[in-house]
Amino acid sequence: MKILHTSDWHIGKRLMDRERLPEQREALEELVRICEDEQADVVLVAGDVFDTFMPSAEAEEVFFHAVKRLAGTRRAVVLISGNHDDGVRLAASAPISAEEGVYLFGGSKRALPVGGSRGVRAVGAGENYLLLENEAGERLYVNALPYPNEARLKEEKTEETYAKKVARWISCGAEARGEGVPYVLLTHLFAAGGAASESERDIQLGGARIVPIDCFPADAFTALGHLHKRQRLRDNVYYSGSLLQYSFDEANIPKSVAILKTEGDKVVFEKEVPLTSGRKLVRLEAAGVEQALALLRRYENAFVELTLHLNAPLTAQETLSLREANEGLVSLIVRTQTAVDAPEIVRSALSSEELFVEYYKSVYGEPPSDELKEAFLELLGEGA
Predict the structure, then answer these.
(1) Among 10, 262, 288, 343, which residue is least crowded by beta carbons within 10 Å?
(2) Domain boundary among 274, 298, 322
(3) pTM attached to this predicted model
(4) 186 has which bridge partners?
(5) CATH number for 356
């Protein structure tokens, strides 16, 4: 069997105020083409298909159209919920979607339907696993562990650590695997050694929700979601990364999907297939407005974060010219340099107002307006 591994679609996610649904729709259609080119039997989606618990109707329409296209007439799509998804809501249509080859796991305790006449179909299922079989009789066992959310953690009234709970859930999901059947663990969590990016909200601090790699079964291929940068933590532990570049620290980091295949009783990594859809994100730095304008025109088809180094404050007209040079400019960071020969200020001898004026001049090169000084003093309680 051939398997395509993808994750973190984040349908409905915006870049600041910029709509990205058209790019997401385009990228999902690219996944369909890759499935056809690679003759994939199974598509694994490792969570965070939506960006919020309550996606818009348009985002849901994009999702349902995409999974139907990915399943086609014979493929199986196995999908779990991530931390951005409402697992119950996502899996509500599971009994119906399974008939179309789309198997949804969102934390429900009921087994999915099996059987049917599709080329790749479920011949065994439980609360947390699926056994798939194709026309040639080849089988694949999928241990499906959706993101362990707070509700599930509260149900487990034990003194176990988070990592031990996850290890136990993984073990339970493997119990129905038959001898010699290739095995995939499909889950959405933060594995030790993974590198996060700015676009992942709710990455747990302090390490309490980080899962050691040793929790993952040695005889399975672990197909992960949650982290947006593609990365291999071991030969058989892999994050496919997000569908698009979603934050500027992902600039210049290529996006891709993983192609896996069964070999005997193993699932092995075969290759990465690059994704080319969507606008690229770039970080630019310029010394002066003229250099910035030239750079912005060079990257007119990208979303841009521009850091601009100046010796004087940016005027309204200059700001407008930068925006007009590239409509993809979404973040403008202005750094005004302090004059090198500025006289040393003896702060202890200055009033609050004088300190504020000197600080403002050191940053912006000119004194603040009377209105701004008045607002500052009012905030301090020193106004008239």
Answers:
(1) 343
(2) 274
(3) 0.84
(4) 144, 223
(5) 3.40.50
